[in-house]
Amino acid sequence: MKNAQVPAARPVPPDLTLAVIAKEPLPGRVKTRLCPPCTPVQAAGLARAALHDTLAALAALPARRRVLALDGRPGPWLPPGFDVIPQVPGTLDVRLAAVFGACEGPVLLLGMDTPQIDAAALTPVLAPHAFAHHEAWLGPASDGGFWALGLAAPSALPVPRAALLRGVPMSRPDTGALQRARLHAAGLRTGTLPTLTDVDTAPDALSVAALAPHSRFAAAVGALPQGLLTSCTTTGSHP
């Protein structure tokens, strides 16, 4: 994917941090729902490509700071310009909250499952007054979860940022709705980013590769044995 660049002359929120939460793409630790039809090694290759594309897209965008909250060790897929911090132990809601706690100012946090991400999808939250008009931004996922969450600086919020995440059930078809409800209950004006597909299943992988044909992820999908992913019909999904 040729990641769209944000014009350098266009201002963005002056203290915005772009953050990614991810696992080191090792066989057996990532993309396990792709196994079968993929082997753990093949699934890890897809995860590695997806992570590379995600980080490359954010590296091309203007930001005060870029952070990777990593479960594992960095590899050659990590571009320059990212501060790597370890994930804390605990459930996903706890780990997400910790990333926000490690960052100052407004933060936009993404996962590693949307390699099709580009500047166009993030245009609303990169606007110079994005966090003046909204205290939160949510990127819904097509499976009911969410692929991005943006929160204003702690000083602009009525409650601690951790309180906006801790206790929200994760990896459920209603996770996105529950997260949005938590934001609304706190009185936050919540903007909405485009709905994207997370790569969780074989059909997801094929769909996302088609959407981003020039991406490293699409190349990794194309390098798999012909028909491997189309041989698997998966009906389940989770955020």
From TrEMBL:
InterPro entries: Nucleotide-diphossugar_trans, Trfase_1_rSAM/seldom-assoc. Transmembrane segments: none annotated. Pfam families: DUF2064. Signal peptide: none annotated. SUPFAM superfamilies: Nucleotide-diphospho-sugar transferases. PANTHER family: GLYCOSYLTRANSFERASE (PTHR36529:SF1), SLL1095 PROTEIN (PTHR36529). This is DUF2064 domain-containing protein. The lineage of its organism: Bacteria, Bacillati, Actinomycetota, Actinomycetes, Kitasatosporales.
